[in-house]
Amino acid sequence: MTDFYDSAETRHQAEREQALLLALPHALRHAVANAPAVARQLQGVDATHIHTREALSQLPVIRKSDLLTLQTEARMGGAAFEVQRDVRERVFGGFSAVGWGSKTRRVFASPGPLYEPEGSTPDYWRFARALFAAGFRSGDLVHNCFSYHFTPAGSMFETAAHALGCTVFPAGVGQTEQQVQAILDLEPSGYTGTPSFLKIILEKADELGVNLPSIKRALVSGEAFPPSLRDWFIARDIQAYQAYGSADLGMIAYETSARDGLVLSEDLLLEIVRPGTGAVLPEGEVGEVVITALNTAYPLVRFGTGDLSAILPGVSPCGRTNTRIRGWLGRADQTTKVRGMFVHPAQVAQVIARYPELIKARLVVSGRMGADQMTLKVECTSQPPALATRLEQTVRDVTKLRADIEFVDPNQLPNDGKVIEDVRAYD
User: Fold this and answer.
1) Could you tell me the sign of the dihedral formed by the alpha carbons of 348, 352, 353, 355, in that order?
2) Residue 80 above 50 pLDDT?
3) How many CB atoms lie within 10 A of CB 37?
4) CA distances, 198 to each of 127, 144, 162, 176 (Å)
5) Confidence bin at 83 (pLDDT 50/70/90)
6) pLDDT for res 85
7) What positions does the domain AMP-dependent ligase C-terminal occupy (predicted)?
8) With contact defined as beta carbons under 8 Å apart, do 301 and 59 qualify?
9) DSSP letter string over 306-343?
10) Per-residue pLDDT averaged across 224-252, rounded?
């Protein structure tokens, strides 16, 4: 039995990179021709010239908040948006390349509401690769406890299981005793859902005095999966692995038997950028996960997920050669309110951009509510005369707030992706 879903997982990194960058201009041309919002995002850009990482990094980043704003404006007929009857505009804010019909199997809603299309290709959300890495195989019965209501999670994992040749029990969420009974009756070999709900089911079985020995593997997602819970499952003879994805992009990265980071999906271009900007960070630096998806139905270009992570060096010990990330390390949107005014990571980046001698900065908000204090901690290569004074004025110009300036040595600020740190006392 092979250890890999397909040969793409073990190809040379240079071969993968070449294939992705060769496909990128074609994907961008398709997106511009079929997704009106992408055409606006890339206005004035010649897609044929976007065939390097450097060229890609010059394109604007689109974030989830932008999708929600444009979808809302399209539905409400906002002044900034001329509403079209085409559902690509009216429903999806112009980011979808498909409307209703055979090319769109389903449409889902995330909180907002933010609507996402499901294309008609098999395993559209691309989670089959993650299921395979977690040990699922053709002929398995999968107990799927992701929601089938509104959001795409249930469909994500069901279509992936079908792509592998598995049968699915659509368990959904809730009704814990009925979940236990269904597992007793059907004896599924695998579980998909959140890790906390699997623990709840197993604990309910304990309470009822029954064993659920059939479940040997699990692919979990949707929330944090700490090592302590992973080990709790292992003690019950269940090997559980995690996958990372979103309702917009589908599967982004997945855990393997090496349990050493998460391996990137084969058809995505990943960048780690400084929060609030589109500036790409070097390997190992924590920043926002930005994805370009070569997806003909929903072609998101430089989509900022709002999640923090970092690229791990080298390749996975399991033999898969694609890029690995450390996993979910928090949220990139660190916007906070200071003295009644919002301060954004992009504003901190704007301050840094004006001073070439600055390496890195971190805005620390301290004090108590109503008595806020801001300190801009900066790493710099040199300290020209009056730099602190000029920085104070720039912060005031950009944020309309006063901040103290504190210089620190290079590499002294934590590598955690934080641009704004709120350490105020709220008691």
Assistant:
1) positive
2) no
3) 25
4) 19, 10, 21, 10
5) very low
6) 64
7) 340-416
8) yes
9) EEEE-EESS--TTS--S-EE-----BS---EEETTEEE
10) 95
Element counts in the chain: helices (H) and strands (E):
12, 21
Distance CA 30, CA 301 (A): 12
pLDDT digits (tens, 9 = 90+) for 181-209: 999 999 999 999 999 999 999 999 999 99
* In contact, 78 and 90? CB cutoff 8 Å: no
Tell me: pLDDT of 162 over 80.
yes
Peptide linkage before 317 cis (omega within 30 of 0): no
What's the pLDDT score for residue 192? 98
Q: What is the pLDDT of residues 385-420, one digit of tens each?
A: 889 999 999 999 998 889 999 999 888 999 888 889
328 closest CA partner among 252, 271, 248, 265: 252
Cα-based torsion angle of the residue sequence 221, 224, 228, 231 in order, rounded to the nearest 10 degrees: 10
Is there a contact between 263 and 320 (Cβ–Cβ < 8 Å)?
Answer: yes
Q: Any idea what DSSP says for residue 48? A: G
The rounded Cα 353 to chain-centroid distance in angstroms is 26
Q: Give the angle subtended at the CA of 205 by the CAs of 203 and 207, to the nearest 5°.
A: 70
CB 97 within 8 A of CB 88: yes
Dihedral sign, CA of 92, 98, 100, 104?
negative
Class for the domain spanning 336-422:
alpha beta
Q: Determine how many CB atoms are found less than 10 A away from the CB of residue 296.
A: 17
The alpha carbon of 405 is separated from its chain's Cα centroid by a whole number of angstroms, namely 33
Confidence of residue 369 (pLDDT cuts 50, 70, 90): low
DSSP secondary structure code for residue 140 in this structure? -
